[in-house]
């Protein structure tokens, strides 16, 4: 007898969701067609041999708006186009002949030399622009196609690259910024991150996945890479017999159908992480839904199958062995952003700093690298909270480093508002955006620092405010205390203006859950400081002992 829960799966399979493993290869949507017509990785040769010489107008539109992403390149939004027109204009009307370039930084691990090179590239080729993203990357803007080969040469000379920084492929592998230096670390995931990057990034076997594919690996008990909302995650867990390893989770993601990742109940030792990661990736490649873009992320397959079936397919068809059953990892604890000065396990210190909403500049990155080197450090890390960490600092050098970084706008003791605010790229550069985000975030931080100076000492943890320029939730709308989704709203005078749908009370870690989208709860962008101030004051006045914003 067929259990009732299998009925929907059979219905779906008959109709077909574009799963390769079930033979559904046609019809193709435009994205699938583009990937089938030519492996996106092949576009690099055309950039180097043709487009960089013949200029922007020579670029094949299928490369420009599709395959370029596999090398971290998107065209920028043309300045001056308001968000109300985002949905109605043709792509060529929206775009500028300049590119955003995403430099992937697997594990968030950088040498000072690498950071300096990124900063110098920014100064030379990107009008001194740079943003630290909430996925540990650095994004540059104003890149000309003519300069891309030279930029790649300079990046690759120091071991950096942009391959598969965007596109339907394995994006940057997130890693704990404190890997290898934290006293409370369960296990250091660095070898697994390096192995995945070396073996599989740029591998044509994984360059045509149904959709973007996000990986997080952290042996920190804080779960400091937001594993709950990645497609595949390995979280530090101690097995009673085998010792430290990783708990495997799949199917997390935000955007318009947010899902938290589910545990498969399997424990994976460090030296098997890359193999198991490749197995999960193959399941996604072969069984993922390709028919409709908005159902193509791994979370939809995981939701339909459930953890048990997913693990069964992974073991039986891909790994050809059973995984080891594992206990649930301990619930995450502690702040995840690593801001401030803290001891390392080896007696040195790390200094975590926060620029406002990740916005820096090439000059700032060069200066930060020099500041780190001045105190003898050669290592930095980026964080998923748009922060930067300098490692390996002697205690005696900490005050002068903190002072120097502060002068660069990199605060080791940020106000709770600066610490808690994140923003996506927004209308300044993003073609999908409906509203401005980075400048609004900076304004919001400045306003709140001034207006709430009298009460901010009472906040034992920052109230997080995440500004997003559209429903895509790149800055994690649904898991902030105050999540803001950009849209056009009507103000009191009846005018259509930039504003936000508000999601309240989201969180990860112990509070994992999505913010409530209160019907009709929208604010205009101009009202935002008033609104956040009101909320913060009310929370501080009414909260009970130990109460957190989410509850
Ligand atoms: Fe662009 Fe929207 Fe993502 Fe912001 S959330 S970066 S506006 S796609």
Detail the topology: elements first, then pairings.
Layout: H1 7-15, H2 30-37, H3 43-54, H4 61-64, E1 73-77, H5 91-94, E2 95-103, E3 109-111, H6 112-125, E4 129-132, E5 138-143, H7 148-157, E6 170-175, H8 190-200, E7 213-218, E8 232-239, E9 243-250, E10 262-268, H9 273-287, H10 298-319, E11 324-325, E12 340-343, E13 349-353, E14 359-361, H11 362-374, E15 379-382, E16 388-393, H12 398-407, H13 416-420, E17 421-423, H14 438-451, E18 465-468, E19 482-490, E20 496-504, E21 516-524, H15 528-542
Parallel strand pairs: 6-7, 7-8, 17-18, 18-19
Antiparallel strand pairs: 1-2, 2-5, 3-15, 4-5, 4-14, 8-9, 9-10, 10-11, 12-13, 13-16, 15-16, 19-20, 20-21
This protein binds iron/sulfur cluster.
For the structure shown, list the relevant keywords.
single chain, iron, 22% strand, six-stranded mixed β-sheet, alpha+beta, 4Fe-4S, 15 helices, five-stranded antiparallel β-sheet, binds iron/sulfur cluster, globular
Arithmetic mean pLDDT: 93
How many runs of DSSP E, i.e. beta strands? 21
**Helix fraction?**
25-40%
Give the termini separation: 44 Å
Largest sheet: number of strands, sense, barrel closure: 6 strands, mixed
**Which structural category fits the helices and strands?**
alpha+beta
**What strand line-up does the widest sheet have?**
6-7-8-9-10-11
What global shape is seen?
globular
The small molecules bound here are: iron/sulfur cluster
Which ranges are low-confidence, i.e. pLDDT below 50, for 5 or more consecutive residues? Answer: 1-13
CA-based gyration radius: 23 Å
Number of helices: 15
Strand content: 15-25%
Region (Disordered): 1-40
Cofactor: siroheme; [4Fe-4S] cluster
Protein name: assimilatory sulfite reductase (ferredoxin)
Domain Nitrite/sulphite reductase 4Fe-4S: 166-320, 419-551
């Amino acid at each position: 007898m067929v259990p009732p829960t299998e009925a929907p799966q059979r219905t779906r399979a008959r109709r077909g969701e574009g799963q390769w493993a079930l033979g559904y290869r046609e019809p193709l949507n435009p994205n699938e067609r583009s990937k089938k017509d030519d492996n996106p990785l092949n576009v690099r040769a055309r950039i180097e041999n043709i487009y960089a010489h013949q200029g922007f107008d020579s670029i094949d539109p299928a490369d420009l708006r599709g395959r370029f992403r596999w090398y971290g390149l998107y065209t920028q939004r043309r300045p001056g186009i308001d968000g109300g027109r985002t949905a109605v204009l043709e792509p060529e009307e929206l775009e500028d002949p300049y590119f955003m370039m995403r430099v992937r930084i697997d594990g968030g691990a950088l040498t000072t030399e690498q950071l300096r090179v990124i900063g110098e590239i920014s100064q030379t080729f990107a009008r001194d622009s740079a943003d630290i993203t909430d996925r540990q990357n650095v994004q540059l803007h104003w890149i000309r196609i003519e300069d891309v080969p030279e930029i790649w040469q300079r990046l690759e000379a120091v071991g950096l690259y942009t391959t598969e920084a965007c596109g339907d492929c394995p994006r940057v592998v997130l890693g704990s910024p404190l890997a290898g230096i934290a006293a409370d670390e369960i296990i250091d995931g660095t070898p697994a991150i390096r192995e995945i990057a070396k073996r599989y990034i740029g591998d044509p076997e994984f360059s045509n996945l149904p959709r973007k594919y996000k990986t997080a690996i952290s042996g920190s008990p804080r779960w400091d890479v937001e594993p709950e909302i990645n497609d595949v995650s390995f979280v530090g867990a101690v097995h009673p017999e085998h010792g430290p390893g990783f708990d495997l989770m799949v199917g997390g993601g935000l955007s318009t159908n947010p899902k938290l990742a589910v545990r498969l109940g399997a424990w994976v030792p460090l030296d098997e992480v890359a193999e198991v990661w490749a197995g999960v990736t193959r399941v996604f490649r072969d069984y993922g839904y390709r028919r409709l873009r908005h159902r193509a992320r791994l979370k939809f397959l995981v939701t339909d199958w459930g953890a048990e079936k997913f693990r069964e397919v992974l073991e039986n068809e891909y790994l050809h062995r059973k995984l080891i059953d594992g206990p649930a990892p301990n619930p995450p604890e502690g702040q995840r952003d690593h801001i401030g000065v803290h001891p390392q396990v080896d007696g040195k210190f790390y200094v975590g700093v926060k620029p406002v909403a990740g916005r820096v500049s090439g000059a700032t990155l060069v200066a930060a690298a020099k500041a780190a080197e001045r105190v003898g450090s050669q290592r930095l890390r980026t964080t998923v909270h748009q922060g930067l960490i300098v490692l390996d600092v002697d205690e005696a050098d900490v005050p002068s480093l903190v002072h120097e970084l502060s002068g660069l706008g990199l605060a080791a003791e940020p106000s709770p508002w600066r610490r808690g605010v994140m923003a996506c790229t927004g209308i300044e550069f993003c073609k999908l955006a409906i509203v401005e985000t980075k400048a609004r975030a900076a304004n919001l931080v400045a306003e709140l620092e001034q207006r709430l100076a009298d009460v901010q000492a009472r906040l034992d943890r920052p109230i997080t405010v995440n500004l997003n320029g559209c429903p895509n939730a790149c800055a994690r709308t649904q898991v902030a205390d105050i999540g803001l989704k950009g849209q056009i709203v009507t103000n009191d005078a009846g005018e259509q203006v930039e504003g936000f749908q508000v999601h309240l009370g989201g969180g990860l870690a112990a509070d994992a859950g999505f913010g409530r989208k209160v019907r009709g709860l929208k604010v205009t962008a101009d009202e935002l400081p008033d609104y956040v101030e009101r909320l913060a004051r009310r929370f501080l006045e009414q909260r009970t002992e130990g109460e957190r914003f989410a509850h």
